[in-house]
Amino acid sequence: MTRSHRSMSANVNQHGATVNETRIRVRYAETDQMGVVYHANHFIWFEVGRVELLRRLGFTYKDMEREDDCFIAVVDARCRYKAPVHYDDEVVVRTYLKHVREKVIHFGYELRRADTGELLAEGETAHIVANAKMKPRALPEKYMNAFRAAVGK
């Protein structure tokens, strides 16, 4: 069975950055013995949010890799857990770009309870831009332009 999630409309945060919202329904397999979502799953949801944000910007990871030999490898990932998440909860993954430079990209995330808006977790990831051999390279201009516009600064 495939994972169900759906992207919602893109918004703008208080800093003018484009924010993509994706809803995810928690599966039983994502919970631990205490009935709480296992902490590492938050990072999987961050990835879902990143992929959907890129789609909102008009391209995909697949496009970047296949067409432009451009990979964005995670070099740092952080999450601050604010409240437990349980089986069958619906979570909104809010994803936005925090900073973009020629060879480094920072994404920010919020996980919120869909029905109340309660903040469940917040996080960030830093990525280096590399080629298929994992050698640093500059972000192609077409992606840099899209990312800069999405940062909103």
Automatic annotation (TrEMBL):
It holds the Pfam family 4HBT_2. CDD domains: 4HBT (cd00586). Keywords: Hydrolase. It comes from the Bacteria. InterPro entries: 4-hydroxybenzoyl-CoA_TE, HotDog_dom_sf, YbgC/YbaW. Signal peptide: none annotated. Its EC number is 3.1.2.-. One of its GO terms (molecular function) is fatty acyl-CoA hydrolase activity. Belongs to the 4-hydroxybenzoyl-CoA thioesterase family. This is Putative enzyme. It comes from Candidatus Sulfotelmatobacter kueseliae.
